[in-house]
Amino acid sequence: MKKFIVLSLFGLLIMAFSATAYAQVEFKAYGALYAGTIWDRNFAGQAGSIASYFASPWGPADHGGWDKPTAYYSSYANIFFEWDSGKEIKGVFNIETCNYFSGRNTAPWHTGGVGEGAEFDTGLWDTRVGETRLRGAYTQFGVPYFGIPVPMSITAGIFGMAVRPPFLFANTNGAGVQIDAKYDPAAFTFTWGKMYEGETYASDDSNWYSLEGRVKAGNVTVGGYVINNNMNTYPIPANYSDVVSATNPLDNANIWWLGGYADGKAGPFNFNFDIAFDTGKVRDNAGVFDDVKYSGFASQLRITYPWEKFTFGGLAGYWSGADLKKTDRNGIPGKPTAYDGSGTSSKVNAFVYPAGDVEWVIWSESMFLGGTWASLICIPQGLTGANWNYQLSRGPTGGTWIAKLFGSYMVTPNYKMTLQGLYIGDTTKNGNTMGNAVNSDGTARDDKTIGWELALINDINIYKSLNLKIGVGMLFAGNALDQNVPGTNTNQSPKNPYMVSSVLTYNF
C-alpha cells in the first residue's frame, strides 16, 4: 500500500511538472485555402501549352489542346502548425495538398521519371487515395549568449529556403540549416541545404550554399548575396534508377550566382532594384564530352507611385538568352545544339535559376509567364516541362526582356482594380526562347517579339480574411511563339492566348 501511495505521488509530481512545462508552449495554426476556376487558350501554366517551356516540344496534335479553349477547377491548401516556447524556440510543421486540376484521376500528364503520379494529386475524385505533401518540419531557436554581442538564430530541419524572392530563388523547401545574425543596421543569413545524398559512402551528393548580407540606411535597404549549387550528381535523379551507379552519377555541376539589390523610397516613389549573374560549369562525369559553361545575367527595376486612391507603376527587366548555336535546350554535355544539331552543347548564356526554384509560381508580374497566381498551378514547369526541380531552369523570365506599365484604383475600401500592359521580348540568339519555329532549311528561326499582354485584375475583399481575385487577360502573340510542326520545316502560329481566372483565398 505504501509503495502504491509513493508511486501515485511520484506520478502526480510528474504530471504537475509536465503540465507546467507544456503550459509554456503556445500552439498556433495558420495558412490558406484556395479554390479557383480557369478558362483559357494556349496558356503557359499547362502541359502541352506554348509558353510553359524553353522551347515547346509539342506539335499541334499534342493532347489535342492546340488553339482549343480549356476550362478546369482547382483547389488546394497550405497549412502551418507552430509550437512556440517563448521568444527563444519554436517548432513548425507545414503540409500542402496539391491539385493540378480537379477530376484528374489518371497520371498521363506527369510520367517519364518526373516522379509525380496521380497518387500525389488531391484532384482525384476519391481524394482519400491522394497524398498530402510535407513542405516543412523545422526547429528555430535563438542562440544563447556566449559572449558574442550579435543576436543569432538557427533554423534546422525541412524549411523554405529563399534568396531575394520574387526576383531570384523563391522559397524551395528542403532539408538543411540556416543561421541568421543581426547587428543593427546590418543582418546576415547563411544557408546550407542537402539537395541530394545518393550513396552515403560515395561522393555523389549535391549541396546548396547561400550567404546574404543587407544593411538599412534611412529609407533604403541595400543587400548582396552569393549562391552555390555544388552538384556531384546533375540533374538530381527523379528516381533511384536514374543514377547510373553510386560511383558513376549522371553529370556534375558547380554553378554560382552573385547578386545585389536595393529597396526603398526616393521622394514619393517606391523602388525595387535587382541585378544578378550566374557562372559555372556542367561536366560530363565520364569525361567523354566537353564541359558546358554557364554565364548569364539579369536585372529588374520596379517603381511605384501612390497618389490618393491610385497607384501607378512600371517595371523594366532583362534576362539574358542562350545562343542556340552553342547549346541544346537544357545545357547537357554531349547533346546536339538546338540551332541545327551540327555541334554539341558548350555554352549557355541564358540566365538560369537554381535547381528546385519555384520562381515559376512566385514571379507574378505577368498573367502568362509561368504558373502564376492566375493558374493555381502549385508545381512549376521546367526548362522543357520535365524535371523542373532537378536541374537548372530558365524560370518564367530567362531569355526575355519585359517592359510593363500598370495602374491600380481603390474603387471602394474593399475593391481594387488594376490594369496592366506588358511588352515581352525574346533575348535568345539563333532561335527562340518559347517558340521552336524553323527556317526553310530546318535551322532554328530567330524572332524578337513574344507578345503584348493586356490584363485587368480585380481584388475583392469579401471579408477581412477572404479574398476573391478575378483576372482577365490576353497575350497578342508575336512571331517568337510560333511552333514547328514535327517532322517538317513548316511552322504554325498560335491563336492569341487568353485567360479568365478566379481565385478564392481564405487566410487564417
Summary?
It contains two helices and 21 strands. It is mainly beta. It starts with a helix and ends with a strand.
Which key terms come to mind for this protein?
508 residues; mainly beta; Porin; 18-stranded antiparallel barrel; two-stranded antiparallel ribbon; 2 helices; 21 strands; globular; disordered N terminus
Walk me through the structure.
With 508 residues, the protein is mostly beta strands. The longest helix is centred in the first third of the chain and has 22 residues, at 2-23. It is 5% helix and 48% strand. It has a single domain (37-74, 161-507), classed as Porin (Beta Barrel), CATH 2.40.160. The model is unreliable at 1-21, 45-63, 106-120 and 379-387 (pLDDT under 50). A hairpin with a 2-residue loop joins strand 8 (206-217) and strand 9 (220-234). It has two helices and 21 strands. It has helices at 2-23, 359-362; strands spanning 26-41, 69-85, 89-97, 133-142, 152-163, 169-183, 186-196, 206-217, 220-234, 251-266, 269-284, 292-307, 310-319, 347-348, 400-412, 415-426, 449-463, 466-477, 483-484, 491-492, 498-507. The protein has an 18-stranded antiparallel beta barrel. It has a two-stranded antiparallel ribbon with strand order 19-20. The radius of gyration is 25 Å and the shape is globular.
- Percent strand: over 45%
| End-to-end gap | 53 Å
Please compute the radius of gyration using only Cα atoms: 25 Å
Query: What number is the mean pLDDT?
Result: 82
Tell me the series of helices and strands, N- to C-terminal.
Answer: HEEEEEEEEEEEEEEHEEEEEEE
Say what the CATH topology is. Answer: Porin
Helix-strand makeup class: mainly beta
